[in-house]
Structure to design on (397 residues):
């Protein structure tokens, strides 16, 4: 019958549709990892892909063909971390403000050990070391740097580490003492005396006073040492006053201890008080007993303007020594114009008679590794510090 045939065809068509629907649902389920039919066969386990062995590691450093690699060794941990951080900030600021794209300065912490920091810096391929801050650290890393033919421009004020590849950029007490003693003699002082704290700095300051006066033939009436206590300071001044007449007395100490010592000196003598480069701090003017005292230091004119820039970037004013980090980068920036390719740093360019200029005024390096600076003489007044003899704009020939 036609009806039966039609029914049979319809059934056949519905069966085919159902079969197709089952196949599609099965494919969707097969593509879903979270749903597996209970009746589904176990999944076929495929062999893991073949993993290619990584290429061999090269011992060569990445080539930074556009920049010279410079290591900055400063303490960023430990008791001197604040000073080290300020020097590092100043160096960064110099890179930014000069838009310098030829230098790559990398910091290494000497707080946990200067030798380890220097070894890391040398292994990284640095061609010049700026720092370290402390004289003992510079002395320890010097042989390592020398073996690698890498010069050191240190921030220490320890003149004894200078030479044989080490250049001392710190503010040297002997230069400041010579400057203020010569100024005092030119203004009427003929007999000198010294109050010298116990310790390494005091020993070097005392030696500088004796060297300066002996070269000119000016007598040092007496030089007394003391420890940082009022009783010891008072006793030292008492011994000094018994030794004879003097026109000027050098107090070779920090701002804090010089302010303690000043009243004893004023009480016992009318002599002019002289200080060292350590006095280059505005707080020195808060001691009435030191009013009228003289001391020599680097110029503060450009530095004072730069402090505002530092404060705006880092939220506070830097310690005075931070300028060394900035000026070191300026120095290398200038020399970098003669630093070609990937060769060694042109160390001969450091000994330039015309010198360099930075935040601290004019300076230059001498063949013995010491730096020579143009210094001003300051006088302490009740309202602050005023310049009585400006620093020369250049160091001449």
């Amino acid at each position: 019958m036609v009806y039966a045939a039609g029914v049979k065809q319809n059934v056949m068509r519905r069966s085919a549709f159902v079969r197709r629907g089952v196949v599609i649902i099965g494919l969707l389920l097969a593509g879903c990892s979270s749903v597996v039919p209970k009746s589904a066969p176990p999944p076929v386990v495929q062999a893991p892909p073949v993993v290619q062995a990584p290429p061999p590691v090269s011992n060569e450093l990445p080539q930074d063909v556009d920049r010279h690699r410079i290591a900055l060794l400063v303490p960023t941990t430990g008791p001197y971390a604040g000073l080290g951080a300020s020097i590092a900030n100043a160096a960064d600021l110099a890179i930014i403000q000069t838009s310098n794209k030829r230098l790559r300065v990398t910091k290494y912490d000497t707080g946990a050990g200067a030798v380890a920091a220097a070894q890391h810096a040398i292994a990284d391929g640095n061609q010049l070391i700026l720092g370290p801050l402390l004289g003992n650290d510079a002395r320890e890393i010097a042989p390592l740097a020398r073996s690698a033919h890498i010069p050191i421009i240190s921030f220490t004020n320890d003149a004894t580490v200078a030479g044989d590849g080490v250049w001392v950029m710190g503010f040297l007490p002997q230069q400041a003492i010579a400057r203020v003693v010569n100024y005092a003699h030119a203004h009427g002082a003929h007999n000198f005396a010294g109050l010298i704290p116990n310790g390494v700095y005091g020993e070097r300051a005392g030696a500088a006073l004796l060297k300066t006066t002996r070269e000119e033939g000016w007598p040092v009436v007496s030089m007394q040492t003391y420890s940082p206590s009022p009783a010891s300071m008072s006793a030292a001044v008492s011994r000094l006053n018994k030794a004879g007449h003097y026109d000027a007395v050098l107090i070779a100490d920090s701002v804090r201890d010089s302010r303690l010592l000043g009243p004893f000196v004023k009480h016992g003598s009318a002599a002019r008080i002289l200080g060292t480069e350590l006095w280059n701090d505005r707080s020195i003017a808060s001691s009435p007993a030191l009013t009228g005292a003289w001391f020599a230091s680097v110029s503060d004119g450009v530095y004072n303007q730069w402090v505002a820039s530092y404060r705006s970037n880092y939220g506070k004013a830097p310690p005075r020594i931070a300028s060394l980090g900035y000026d070191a980068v300026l120095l290398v920036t200038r020399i970098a114009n003669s630093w070609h390719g990937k060769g060694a740093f042109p160390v001969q360019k450091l000994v330039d008679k015309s010198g360099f200029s930075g935040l601290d005024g004019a300076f230059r390096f001498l063949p013995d590794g010491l730096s020579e600076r143009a210094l001003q003489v300051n006088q302490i007044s009740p309202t602050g510090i005023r310049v009585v003899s400006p620093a020369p704009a250049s160091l001449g020939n």
Notes: The chain has two domains: 68-168+301-339+350-359, 173-299+376-389. Residues 307 and 317 are 6 Å apart (CA to CA). The first helix runs from residue 2 to 30. The two ends are 128 Å apart (CA to CA).
